[in-house]
Amino acid sequence: MKNYIIEIRWAFVFIVATILWAGIEKLIGLHDSKIGTMPFFFLLFAIPAVAIYVLALLEKKEKVYQGVMSWKEATVSGIVLSLFIAVLNPVAQWAIYTLISPEFFAKAVKFYTEKHTLTETQAMARFNLPAYMKQSITESLSVGVITSALVALFVQTKTKKS
Predict the structure, then answer these.
(1) What is the pLDDT, as a whole number, of residue 162?
(2) Is residue 90 within 8 Å of residue 137, measured between CB atoms?
(3) Which residues lie closer than 8 Å to 133 by C-beta, 6 or more apart?
(4) Of 58, 90, 37, which is closest to residue 157 (Cα–Cα)?
(5) Cα 113 to Cα 96: distance, rounded to the nearest angstrom
(6) 135 within 8 A of 127, measured Cβ to Cβ
(7) Across the chain, what does the average pLDDT equal?
(8) What predicted TM-score, i.e. pTM, was given to this entire model?
(9) Inter-residue contact 35 to 112 (CB < 8 Å)
């Protein structure tokens, strides 16, 4: 675990950012009157998410690899970061939908059934805490692996330092 302290720390930063982002969503009404636009606004979270990956991999490059890091090393570090985020993400989902916005799922079910985009059964299956927890794990892993590989392209050392 000592080898992964940087990834663990940045995973906690990512989770705090996730919770803060949800708080902003709640404050601007995306968990209430503007619930239908929430998925589009959430896409903007990619900006701080990628920034966190960049900062984490840059720190790993400097502190562990003394400024010389290959694409593979950067990608592996990013994947490890993604694994820790996936482990912690259910806790974030619990905090968001229990403490920050406990009425979110009921409002989402109501919104999507009233708009006739989902039946009540479909909406209830999609909008609940266990479903969001599972989704957060799979998204953390799948999107995290892709993000890791892409960020590694920019963080890697192009030529070896002498």
Answers:
(1) 46
(2) yes
(3) 89, 90, 93, 94
(4) 58
(5) 23
(6) no
(7) 94
(8) 0.92
(9) no
CB 55 within 8 A of CB 10: yes
Q: What is the pLDDT of residues 98-127, one digit of tens each?
A: 999 999 999 999 999 999 889 999 999 999
C-alpha closest to that of 33 among 107, 86, 120? 107
Two tokens at 40? 């589009």
In this prediction, residues 13-34 reach a mean pLDDT of 96
The C-alpha angle 62, 66, 72, rounded to 5 degrees, equals 80
Closest CA to 57 of 74, 72, 71: 74
Token digits for 87? 């482990």
> What pLDDT, in 10s, does the model give residues 54-88?
999 999 999 999 999 999 999 999 999 999 999 99
Q: What is the largest CA-CA distance in the chain?
A: 65
pLDDT > 90? residue 51: yes
Residues 58-74: b if buried by 16+ CB within 10 A, e if exposed? bebbeeeeeeebeeebb
The Cα–Cα gap between 91 and 86 comes to 10
